[in-house]
Amino acid sequence: MTLTQKFSKKLKILREVNNYTQEYVARVLDISQNAYSLLEKGTTKITLDRIEVLATLYSTTPAELVNVSENIYNGNSVANEMMHSNVPPTLSSFEKRMYEQTISRLEIDIEKLYNLINQLATSKTASQTETNS
């Protein structure tokens, strides 16, 4: 895998981990969604200015963003010798932060869903009580 392919794969993983759409990241970069798609595919090379913008978006440094010395495997950074083992891959501190942020957002969404379910259940119970009266 070339450096461009590794970096492109990293861009896609970071976008997905942060629950961003290609359209959103493209707007941040001030390019079209199609142009951003080509960056993720490795068809178009990225500029340093855009690397800086992406580093800010993902709360990291440009150096950490472009660090592709480790392979990306299922969203995790792993050493070459671990690629085909059953040992869970270790995450870099940056990837841990991204996953923690994603988990935190999902926990908030789950809490909102529980509240909606409770509201619906309460509403249904109230309407059934009125119907039976």
UniProtKB/TrEMBL annotation:
Coiled-coil stretches noted in the UniProt entry, renumbered to this chain: 96-123
- Which GO terms fall under molecular function for this chain's record? DNA binding
| Keyword DNA-binding in record | yes
Give the UniProt keywords, A-Z.
Coiled coil, DNA-binding
Q: Which residues belong to any copy of the HTH cro/C1-type domain? A: 11-65
InterPro entries with a match to the protein in the record: Cro/C1-type_HTH (IPR001387), Lambda_DNA-bd_dom_sf (IPR010982)
Q: Name the PANTHER family for this protein.
A: DNA-BIDING PHAGE PROTEIN, TRACRIPTIONAL REGULATORY PROTEIN-RELATED-RELATED
Write down what this protein is called: Helix-turn-helix transcriptional regulator
State the organism of origin. Answer: Taibaiella lutea
